[in-house]
Amino acid sequence: MQATSSMQSNIKIRNGKIQIKTFNRSNFVLHFILSFLVLFTIVAPFFLEYGAIDIQTAIFYTLDNLKMMFLQPALSQVTLTAALYQILITLALAFLSTLIGAVISFFLAILSAKNLMPSYISNVIIAFNSFIRAVPTVLWVLIFAIVAGLGSVAAILGMTLHTIAYLTKAYAESFEEIDNGMIEALRATGAKWWHIIIHVVLPQTSSYMVSWTFLRFETNYGVAIAMGAAAAAGGIGFELFMASSFYYDLHEVGMITYFALIIALILEFISIRIKNKLIGSKS
Amino acid sequence: MQQVLNKEPINSSVEISKKVQKGEVILKVQDLYKSYNRGTPVLQDIQMELKQGEFISIIGPSGAGKSTFLRCINRMIDPTSGSIVFDNTEMTSLKKADLRKQRSKIGMVFQHYNLVSRLSVFENVLHGRFGYKSTLQGVFSLFSEEEKELALSILDKLGMKEFAYKRCDQLSGGQKQRVGIARALVQQPKLLLCDEPIASLDPNASKIIMDHLKDISETMGITVLVNLHQVDVALKYSDRVIGLNKGRIVYDGVPEKLSNSAIRDIYGSEIEDLILE
Ligand SMILES: Nc1ncnc2c1ncn2[C@@H]1O[C@H](COP(=O)(O)OP(=O)(O)OP(=O)(O)O)[C@@H](O)[C@H]1O
Ligand SMILES: [Mg+2]
């Protein structure tokens, strides 16, 4: 009967049932927003203005277009070698921005890891990073386009900036997971700060950094395609843009999409392999 | 160095005091206080003199301040007030470069070994030389042949030479701790601080580690200061036992004179359970 008495003291009961959770303002707000969004999604289509579009024909044409794209892909404006070459350009864009971003991120991550730096320094970098990440890559590219002009330079700058913000956070988090004892042990020998970075932080986190970096490379590949179209950065994205908006050649759009997809799959496959090999071998 | 190479068996307190008097004072702690965040003091009024080649155990209940005291000595933790003179240098006022230099003369061994798990035994042992290196020498691992030979001879002495190229995460606890000791010895320290070196080890591995530590103090003339939880181990190996309770030294003397009532002072009321063990 002790249980009952303790229940009365601090266990919440509502409508005769024991409450598992206690009321909590942030939970309440979260539930409220989620319910609102669900409701909105269900109700909104009834209020949309469709104009003269007949839904049935619209769906039919869409399916027909999709069929043209994906079941009858073909190249007409670009040759196969040209398409492959453009894919190479897109990969190069992604590679360059990932590489530059990764190198800069490594140093920024050291500065923003709480176990390696005083918190007033790390907080500044973390705040700065959050700001960069909050602005979408495309917007950064367009911002850089003001000075660099639309093209690959602006695209690389914008993508690099976003990569830096992303990888700095990822690297810093893996740095912070390092067992503090290792750092303590080296400090106790009289080791310098850089010795600890190179001989503790680097070996303990290198595999995480490689797999995060490759993940970002995958993302940047996707972004590079979009940039080719949106910011005239060249590469396969630009061909895609030309095929769809200039030549209205849906067969070609389909073919290019397949190309891009195959490369993405290959990257994904490599990424998983790297992850399993490096991180799996840790324990 | 000669006086510390004295290998006579130590079996009476008279001989111990003789031996102790031969060594010069390596560490002198006076009026040491430490409190975290201005709370209640964790260490109070600590006075201590350690001599070269001595083997000293600090025993005391959990939370007595043993780890804090050890870390105050090499300034991994800054004491609140008091004086710590190690090797004729006041530690409490040291700034960066000088502090590094002093730290390089103090080895530290940890309960959880604190090895860089993804690096080899050899690499971990050489980490003990960083205190003597410039930034670039350390970053590029520029170790001289003498340093490498020193590392290998120490590994050999500890029976770990055959594992030199093995990754540390593939070693057993006892082996890891021997690497931890090797890393500290390669510093060529004058003082070895061991924070519960055997707390995570089984009795066999514990004996190997304690035997090595004892040997280090006797044959190399290094002062060994060990935090221990096991009273019997402390009694068996130490030249001198220091009992800490609530941040105060309540016993400081030879193990032979550590009476049950003194143990009760150190551990408080939980003592009955301890003696039964
Ligand atoms: N970083 C810290 N901040 C605040 N208080 C601390 C900190 N580290 C230790 N303390 C407190 O100081 C006291 C002594 O801790 P310490 O770790 O030195 O004890 P110990 O004798 O080594 O205990 P154990 O045998 O459990 O290792 C404890 O009460 C602990 O809560
Ligand atoms: Mg402790």
Automatic annotation (TrEMBL), chain B:
GO terms for molecular function: ATP binding. CDD domains: ABC_PhnC_transporter (cd03256). Residues 27-271 form the ABC transporter domain. The keyword Membrane applies. InterPro entries: AAA+_ATPase, ABC_transporter-like_ATP-bd, ABC_transporter-like_CS, ABC_transpr_PhnC, MetN_ABC_transporter-like, P-loop_NTPase. It holds the Pfam family ABC_tran. The keyword Cell inner membrane does not apply. Coiled coil: none annotated. Keywords: ATP-binding, Cell membrane, Membrane, Nucleotide-binding, Phosphonate transport, Translocase, Transport. NCBIfam families: ABC_phnC. This is Phosphonate ABC transporter ATP-binding protein. It comes from Ureibacillus galli. The gene is phnC.
